[in-house]
Amino acid sequence: MTDLTVDWAVSKGFVPYEAAVAFMESRAAAIAKGEANELIWLLEHEPLYTAGTSSKPEHLLTPDRFPIYETGRGGDYTYHGPGQRVAYVMLDLTKRGRDARKFVQNMEKWLVDTAAAFGITAGTRDGRVGVWVDLGDGREDKIAAIGVRLRRWVSFHGIAFNVAPDLSHFGGITPCGISNPLYGVTSLEKLGKTASMDDFDVALHLAFTDIFGQARKVDAPELLAA
User: Which residue among 111, 176, 178, 215 is the active-site one?
Assistant: First the structure.
């Protein structure tokens, strides 16, 4: 593989969801045309719920709690909010083998390895998307979610890792459509791991480069005002 220049950008403060999606789709289209570098974009959103292409109305438990956005990624309902690191992943699979399954497996490994950097043993589960932590006695909590889409072999949307969000906010949805009471959500903070978002980003970057290759840090995108 050649010419794999990946930009790595971090936005400070909260980024409006609709503006983020508009930029992400525009950047993904430019990447597909060979007009822009691949990009990993780290950010936080204010509290909101997103509905994936497989979302079911009954999985939205409190529709008036936070803003709700229809989104083109796969999956069911999910939550984004402060203390959760969202990474929008715009990578060109034309240059990376055009293997969607391997790509998702690499995304999962990225999250598992990041969790390991904080002493957390996490892993994937058959039939349940995302990355999970075994709590014993049959209980497991999700610490990170994955929801991606490919267009012209360029990915967009991405991952969300719970660093220290308000976990009660997940109570307004059935996260990713999983209602089994044995399965919940967790975070580094809930698991007793204290980390600033900056420290988390360092671990996320190191784990990414081990799997996907080098990523150079660039300025955050400039978004158009709403």
Answer: 176
- The verdict on residue 223 lying in a domain is no
Question: 148 catalytic, yes or no?
Answer: no
Q: What is the CATH number of the domain that holds 48?
A: 3.30.930.10
Q: How is 181-201 classified by DSSP, letter by letter?
A: TTEEE--TTTTT----HHHHH
Exposure pattern of 185-208 as b/e (b: 16+ CB <10 Å)?
bbbbebbebebebeebbebbbebb
Summarised one tens digit per residue, pLDDT across range 170-222 is: 999 987 667 778 899 999 999 999 999 999 999 999 999 999 999 999 999 99
**Residue 1 belongs to a domain:** no
Query: How many C-beta neighbours within 10 Å does residue 214 have?
Result: 11
